[in-house]
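Thought: the user wants the 3D structure for the chain below. I'll pass the sequence to the structure tool as-is, report back what it returns, then summarize two notable features.
Action: structure_tool
Action Input:
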Amino acid sequence: MGRVVAIVEDEPLIRANYVEALNRFGYDARGYGSRREAMQAFDSRLPELVIIDIGLGDEPEGGFELCRALRARSATLPLIFLTARDSDFDVISGLRLGADDYLSKDTSLHQLAARMAALFRRLESLGAPSMAEHLVSHGPLKLDLARLQAQWQGQEIPLTVTEFWMVHTLARVPGHVKSRDQLMRDAELVVDDATITSHIKRIRKKFLASDPGFNAIDTVHGAGYRWS
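Observation:
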């Protein structure tokens, strides 16, 4: 039996097509037609990855509400928006709520499957590091790769899988500038510059909530970002 993947999509035919296709890719895909139905199912046990549409039946923003609720339950559960709504505002809103990826319904099934596989691969890589890489520590920052936990000055910072990977990429070699392209490659994302910027802003916001003086991530204009 493959990994359990939930698809929350209110159009029955579209939902059935995605469930069937992902089952062919080897996943144990399960479809839900509304936010309420999905949350009832997830009360007993969370799936291993959730694919969410934004508009869900009579809830135009139901997918956003579901994302917010799921992220509150788990900082590392992989969440992907798959929606026809692809305005910059919707993309940024989804990422701010903690989604790991945001795809248009024009995305091919093979690309969707590749993005899912990348998220699972990153979880596995972070969950089973070599002993030498088990802990990353630089000043007040501590990253526990086995537990996917980040701490700043002893306080846990609730990062998503994508955010954790980006912080790990930056902090692994402090002072070294990582371009947006390098961050995309390391995080196995295929996004535009604005999406990387949104992730960085969200990461900064989370550290600032713990420490108002946080300034460890520098923007190097025209080049990228570095952990100072």
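Final Answer: Structure generated. Residues 12 and 176 are 49 Å apart (CA to CA). Helices lie at 12-24, 35-44, 62-73, 88-96, 109-127, 161-171, 180-187, 193-210.
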